[in-house]
Amino acid sequence: MSADGEADTGFTDEEGIPFVGAGPGDPDLLTVAGRKLVEDADLVVHAGSLVNSELLEEFCADAEQVNSVGKDLEELIPLMTDAYESGRTVVRLHSGDPAIYGAALEQMDALAEAGVPSYLVPGVTSAFAASATLRTQLTLNEVSNHVVFTRPQGRTLSAEEDHISDFVGFGDTTVCIYLGTHAVSETMDRLLDEGHDPDTPVAVVYHASWPDEDVIEGTIETIGEKVEDAGYRASALVIIGEAVNGSNYERSFLYGDWARGGDAPNDEPDTETQEPDNE
Ligand SMILES: C[S@@+](CC[C@H](N)C(=O)[O-])C[C@H]1O[C@@H](n2cnc3c(N)ncnc32)[C@H](O)[C@@H]1O
Q1: Single residue among 72, 95, 124 that ends a domain in this structure
Q2: Quick one: pLDDT at residue 264?
Q3: pLDDT tens, position by position, 14-26
Q4: Which residues of the chain form beta strands (DSSP E)?
Q5: CA of 132 to the centre of ligand 1 (A)
Q6: Which among 11, 29, 230, 276 could bridge 253 via Cys, Cβ 3.0 to 4.6 Å?
Q7: How many CB atoms lie within 10 A of CB 212?
Q8: In terms of domains, do 66 and 77 share one?
C-alpha cells in the first residue's frame, strides 16, 4: 500500500522498459507480471535460444521480436530507445532471472544515459527449475545449509577467480554452476586434482522445464564422461553436492516439536512469522 492509501501499482505499471525474467523455458513458469508485460509489448528483445520460442509464440506472436544474441550495446540501445521514444511498448526478455548472469544492468545504465528509464521484473532462475526436476531442495536440513550460484573459469573468469573448488570444499553447500556445460570434464578433473571426494554427487540438468529436458546423474568422478557421451555443450545446469540426492536429511524444526508447541529451537525466529529460521 502506498502512503496515500492507494494499492501499489506493482511490476506492470512502472514507467520505462521492463527487463523481464522469462523463466527457465516452460511458458507456464513466466510470472503473471511478466506475461502481462509481454502480452502488451509491441517490441520484444529476447535472449535467443534460451528463451523458449513457444513462450514467444504463445504470449507475443503479434509483437516484433528481435533476438539480442550477436548484437552489441551500440546496436541494442538505439533499437530499444528509438522504439520507446516513438511510443511503442518495449520489453527486454532475459532467460531465467535477469539478475543471474544476465548482463542486464549494463543495458539499463546505457538506457538511462540515453534518457530511457527501465526496471527489473524477476523470473524463475534455471537452478530452481533444475532442483524441481531433481525433486530436491538446494538447502536441506543437515545436508546443505548454503547455495552458491557460480560459473567456471574461461573467457570471463580467470583460474584465480574460479572458486568452485572452495565452494565444494565447504561440504554443506550446494554448488550450482551456470555457463559450464561445455566444461564439465575439465571442472571435475580440477576438483579431483584438488583432492575432493570422487563420490560427491553431481547432477547435470539439460534444458530444465523444456520438453526435451534431460537429467544426467553421477559423481565428481563419473559425470564428465557421461555428459560428453550425451553430447551436451550448452544449456545445462551443473549441481554439485549431497543435496542432489535429496536424502540423508533430518526433519526440520518447523514440523517438529517446536511447531506443535514444544520448546523453541535456539535459532533466532523470523520476527515476521515467528517461525524458526530453518523452515
Ligand atoms: C547466460 S546464463 C543465463 C542464466 C539465466 N539468467 C537464469 O537465471 O537461469 C545461461 C546459462 O544458464 C543455464 N540455463 C539457462 N536455462 C537453463 C535451463 N532451462 N536448464 C538448465 N540450465 C539453464 C545454463 O547453464 C546456461 O549456460
Answers
A1: 124
A2: 55
A3: 899 999 999 999 9
A4: 17-21, 43-46, 64-67, 90-94, 118-121, 146-150, 173-177, 201-206, 214-219, 236-240
A5: 15
A6: 276
A7: 8
A8: yes
Ligand 1: residues within 6 Å at CB?
A: 24-25, 50, 94-97, 100-102, 125-126, 129-130, 178-179, 181, 205, 207-210, 234-237
Domain of 119 in residue numbering reads as 11-124
User: Counting every residue, how long is the chain?
Assistant: 279
Q: Please state whether beta strands 64-67 and 90-94 pair in parallel, antiparallel, or not at all (unpaired).
A: unpaired
3: Cα within 13 Å, side-chain hemisphere: 0
Query: Which ligand 1 atom sits nearest the alpha carbon of residue 99?
Result: 6
Rounded mean pLDDT of the chain? Answer: 91
Average pLDDT (253-277) is 58
Residue nearest to atom 12 of ligand 1 (CA): 178
- pTM as predicted: 0.91
Distance 267 CA to ligand 1 centre (A): 34
CA–CA distance, 250 with 257 (Å, rounded to integer) = 13
* Confidence bin at 278 (pLDDT 50/70/90): very low
Q: How many A from CA of 114 to the centre of ligand 1?
A: 29
pLDDT at site 263: 58
Domain total in the chain: 2
Could you tell me if 45 and 68 lie in one domain?
Answer: yes
Mutate-to-test residue for ligand 1 from 126, 131, 227, 240, highest number of ligand atoms within 8 A of CB? 126
CA of 228 to the centre of ligand 1 (A): 19
262 occurs within a structural domain: no
Residue 186 resides in a domain: yes
Is 201 found in the same domain as 148?
yes
Residue 72 lies in a domain: yes
210 shares its domain with 102? no
So what's the pLDDT on residue 271? 46
Q: Tens of pLDDT along 134-170?
A: 999 999 999 999 999 999 999 999 999 999 999 999 9
Nine-digit cell string for 137: 531442495
